[in-house]
Amino acid sequence: MGEHNFGDYIVFVDESGDQSLKSVNANYPVFVLSFCIFEKTHYYTHVVPEILRFKFDFFGSDIPILHEREIRKRGGDFNILMRDDIRSEFFDRLNQIMVESEYTVVSSLIDKRKYSHFNAPDNPYSIGTQFGVKRVFYEMQERGQRGRRIPIVFESRGGNEDRTLEREFEKMVNQSGIDGLKGMFDFHCVSKKANLPACNSLISWQDQ
């Protein structure tokens, strides 16, 4: 195992808001990209078991995806939240998991009302990625991960979008003048349907 030089952390990435600079939602005019850093041992010994236990307790299986939008609308599997007593216990349990879990969030926020006036502005997702990856890199350096391989997991947005993001990611890493950035991160795009506990619960809940 040692020859792989795997790092001690895993990073999940999720967005809030849309990337459009042509039509800006007056009620939510920002784009947020959040990078959530978990220490692997804590992730698989605490976070994953707690999320699975939570799902089995409320749904009888681990199938439902804990996405903020579906939870808020209380549809499908989440129609149980129409009952006040269940809703109260549901949020108490979910919030407790978040409070007791150990993770670090690095976020970039772009106010599209101001950003859209720049000359030929880059895509907000690209800008958010550049900022977030560099900040996460420095965080990993401080935690003794220099020279280690860190998986960074983005939410899949479709084949073309995923390939574009991977190209931009590799270009940014290869052209960066930051010593050690190239070679640290293992890039992944994963659908929420994969139902990774952190990817579809703690991260998505940052939208609240």
Describe the protein.
There is one protein chain. The protein is an alpha/beta fold and 208 residues long. It has one domain (9-138, 151-171, 185-207): Nucleotidyltransferase, domain 5 (2-Layer Sandwich). The protein is 43% helix and 18% strand. The protein has seven helices and five strands; from the N terminus they run E-E-H-H-H-E-H-H-E-H-E-H. Strands 3-2-1-4-5 form a five-stranded mixed sheet. Strand 4, helix 6 and strand 5 (185-190) form a beta-alpha-beta unit. It starts with 8 loop residues before the first strand and ends in a 6-residue tail after the last helix.
Instruction: List the secondary-structure elements in sequence, H or E.
Output: EEHHHEHHEHEH
Give the averaged pLDDT, no decimals.
87
Shape: globular
CATH class: Alpha Beta
**How large a portion of the residues is in β-strands, by DSSP E?**
15-25%
Number of helices: 7
Q: Tell me the CATH topology.
A: Nucleotidyltransferase, domain 5
**N- to C-terminal separation?**
39 Å
Strand line-up of the largest beta sheet: 3-2-1-4-5
Structural class, judged by helices and strands? alpha/beta
Indicate the multimeric state: single chain
Radius of gyration: 18 Å
User: What's the total count of β strands?
Assistant: 5
